Amino acid sequence: MPLDTLLFAAAEDGREEAAYAGLKAALGDCPQYTVRDQTDYEAALQDQIGQLLNMVHGLLAPAIVVAALGVVNTLAPSVVERTREIGLLRAVGLSRRQLRRMIRLESVVIALFGALLGLGLGLGMGWGGARRSGCWRWRGRRSWRSLGRRSAGCSWGRRSWGCPPPWCRRSGRGG
C-alpha cells in the first residue's frame, strides 16, 4: 500500500493563519512531516523549477559554442569556394574592409535566421508542452526581458565569431 505523500487541508475563511500555526505546532516534533501553506508550497515548486532552469542553462552554454562553430564552418567553405568571386570584386574596387563587412553581414544573416527559427520553435514547443501539461500560464516577470537579453547575446556572439578567417584575407589579396 503506498504511503501518503501530500495531505491538503482547508480552513474556514479568516482562520487560515490559526490553522497553519496549530498544525505547525502539533507536528513540530515529527521531522518527517512538513507543514506548508500555499505560498510555502509555491516557493518550493519555484525553487525546483529554478534548479531545473539552472541545469538547462548549463547545458545551453556548450550548445551556443557548437552553434557558433557551426556558423564558422558554414562560412569557411563559402569563402574558400568564392575565391574567384572575391578576387573579381577586389579587382573591381572592393576594399578589404568592405570584404570583411560583407562576410560579417553574411554571418549575421545566418545567425539571425537560426535565432529566429530557434526562438519560434522553442517558444512554440514550450508553450505547447506547458499547455498540454496543464500549467499553461506564463507567470515569469523576467521572462521576456531574459529572452531578449539572451537573444541579443547570441546575435552579438555570432557576429563576433563571424570575423573573416585567415584564408579570407589571403583570397582578398588575390593570393
TrEMBL record:
It is a multi-pass membrane protein. It is found in: Cell membrane. The lineage of its organism: Bacteria, Bacillati, Actinomycetota, Actinomycetes, Kitasatosporales. This is ABC3 transporter permease C-terminal domain-containing protein. Keywords: Cell membrane, Membrane, Transmembrane, Transmembrane helix. InterPro entries: ABC3_permease_C (IPR003838), Macrolide_Exporter_MacB (IPR050250). Belongs to the ABC-4 integral membrane protein family. GO terms for molecular function: transmembrane transporter activity. Pfam families: FtsX. The keyword Nucleotide-binding does not apply. Signal peptide: none annotated. Residues 63-127 form the ABC3 transporter permease C-terminal domain. GO terms for cellular component: plasma membrane.
